[in-house]
Design brief:
With about 140 residues, this protein is of the alpha/beta class. It is built from four helices and four strands; from the N terminus they run ααββαβαβ. A four-stranded mixed beta sheet has the order 1-3-2-4. β2, α3 and β3 form a beta-alpha-beta unit. It starts with a helix and ends with a strand.
Length: about 140
């Protein structure tokens, strides 16, 4: 395991414990729901081979998920930030990332929007794949 992968997995583990999503799907498996909504925390979807001119961070809105918000009809091949953008010549020098958090607004939570913001900023700061100083946040405020 190289340094990048080790740092990525360590940062991901910290975010998972801080931003845990405890939902159950019909089969009762929290992992099944996590797979449907997408991973929690900061996830790097694409790292350009050249120096990145910018980094895009996709942040879902309330009720959404880091993968489900950006996927049409739940089809993995239609998860456009990971499947389409890296193949577009205009995005070959852009880092692409997502940030997932527990967005179930119908349940009371001890973590508020400031906690999520701090988690996102810390993840960006600690991620070795974010090599550009130009960040662009793409959000979906309403699901």
């Amino acid at each position: 395991m190289d340094t990048f992968e080790r740092q990525k997995s360590t940062a991901s583990g910290l975010n998972r414990s801080f931003l845990s999503r405890k939902l159950n799907k019909r089969d009762g498996s929290p992992e099944a729901t996590r797979d449907v909504k997408g991973p929690l925390g900061f996830t790097t979807l694409f790292v350009p081979t050249e120096i990145a001119v910018a980094d895009l961070v996709f942040v879902h809105g309330l009720g959404g998920g880091s993968r489900s918000t950006w996927t049409k009809h739940g089809e993995p091949a239609l998860y456009w930030p990971a499947e389409w953008l890296p193949n577009d010549p205009g995005f070959r020098d852009v880092g692409i990332h997502s940030f997932g958090y527990n967005a179930n607004w119908e349940k009371e939570s001890l973590i508020n929007i400031q906690d999520f913001s701090k988690g996102l900023l810390a993840s960006i700061h600690d991620c070795p794949a974010v090599r550009s100083s130009d960040l662009c946040y793409i959000d979906d405020l309403i699901k």
